[in-house]
Amino acid sequence: MPGAKLDEIDRMILAQLQADGRMTNVELAKRVGISAPPCLRRVRTLEEQGYIRGYHADVDPRELGFEVQVFAMVGLQSQAEADLAAFEARCEGWPLVRECHMLNGEVDFILKCVAPDLRTFQRFLTEELTSAPNVASVKTSLVIRGAKDEPGVPFDVLEARLKRDA
Description:
- With 166 residues, this protein is α+β, with helices and mostly antiparallel strands.
- The chain has two domains: 1-58, Arc Repressor Mutant, subunit A (Orthogonal Bundle), CATH 1.10.10.10; 62-142, Alpha-Beta Plaits.
- The protein is 41% helix and 18% strand.
- The chain has a four-stranded antiparallel beta sheet.
- Strand 2 (97-102) and strand 3 (109-115) form a beta hairpin.
- The radius of gyration is 20 Å and the shape is elongated.
- The relative contact order is 0.15.
- The model has no long low-confidence stretch (mean pLDDT 94).
């Protein structure tokens, strides 16, 4: 099971950093119950192994003038791997697309987009997204409000599962 090869200290480090990636190594070590030098070694190992992909600030889009958030469900004409990869690469180049996920079922991709206003999003929708090669259909849903936005994974669920399977 993924996550099982990490020990309890590693999982605590990940949970603490997921909650607050800005804490100092000394504070992190204190919270997980080890001294600072081995804590730093563990963090670096977790980074090298890909468990920690990076650190970022959680900025508020609305405070920065991005008032519009839209989910776009995209259907492609072809689902050949080369066409899927080409669409994903195209999404990388669209600044308004903040997330791109390939799905199974009747929708091929769901995109999370932000824009300063509806006019900007509409321009992106008509001039970029719907006119992109291989795009067969796009259905959009405007976000009215968000009720939950939790990053990462629920470590309490992982710990309960590991205890159950032990």
